[in-house]
Amino acid sequence: MAKSKADARPGPGKWPAADLARLLRTYAPAASDDVILGPAIGEDAAVVRIGSEPLVVACDPITFTSDSIGYGSVIVNANDVAATGARPRFFLATVLLPVGVSRGEVEAIFAGLAEACREVGALLVGGHTERTAGIDRPLVVGTMIGDLEGREPVLSGGARPGDRVVVTKGAAIEATALIARRMGDRLRPVVGDAVVERARRYLSDPGISVVRDARIARDAGSSAMHDVTEGGVVTGLWEMARASGLGLEVDARAIPVSEETALLCGAVGIDPLEAIGSGALLAAGPPDDAERIAAALSEAGLRASIVGEFLEEGGACTIRRNGHTRELVPPDADPIARLFD
To answer: What is the C-alpha to C-alpha distance for residues 261 and 31, in angstroms, rounded to an integer?
Structure first.
């Protein structure tokens, strides 16, 4: 007898948003005036005050892959800090290693940490490293501390009705790199050597960092920002609308999907709009500001497209795709997680 959906074993990925919201309400209520922004669905960093100085703090793991794990752990945490309008400053890493890992593998992780810290302008200041029983690949959990430099934080939940939302670079940038790096040899006969080689470089070109994107969008007047991660652009847009308490109307045709992304995602049967998309930033503002944000990003050589409009408080979230309008909902799990599980 087939199992019901309720009985099915859950796949890897983010914990269900509704239950996570309940857990946060129950166990992590704001308990101090020094918590400017506490834990909430759609907000990936905390803003706290120590003395008179506000700090932005973000914590994220790298779990999908062990390839470039040190580099990736710095970038994803720097992205969360930057999307709050802050400058990444100090990074701590907990490095968990399987028993039997080689010194060369560990050296590569630390080299990646150092490379990414240089790239985002942060310093590696601490953490913990150990061999851990029960894991089959290295895992890195990072914490980035950021400086708002005297500015107010920019929140994922800062969008207002009528604001337009801009997406930078395009969909599934990280997913494209992961597919090429882990399945490239199998896919070369399907998509061609050139596509695989270009896609393998997606971690750096167009890149999974949004630190530069966020600085430009902030300076151009963005009132809300959110970086795309697990669940892709669809989940990022939904999280931004959820954090803002607004409806959202999205035109899927406006979301850039590169040739490499379309070919590789098509070859493995996953939706690029739902696949992990580090490297894309969502930035919102009133119509004139959104146009200015998109123009500033474009002038800096970053692809930018206006893909949707926020609606009234409590409104529906919808996406127009292939001539049909349907509810905008995040996938149960990122298709990349299922692909590699």
So the answer is: 44
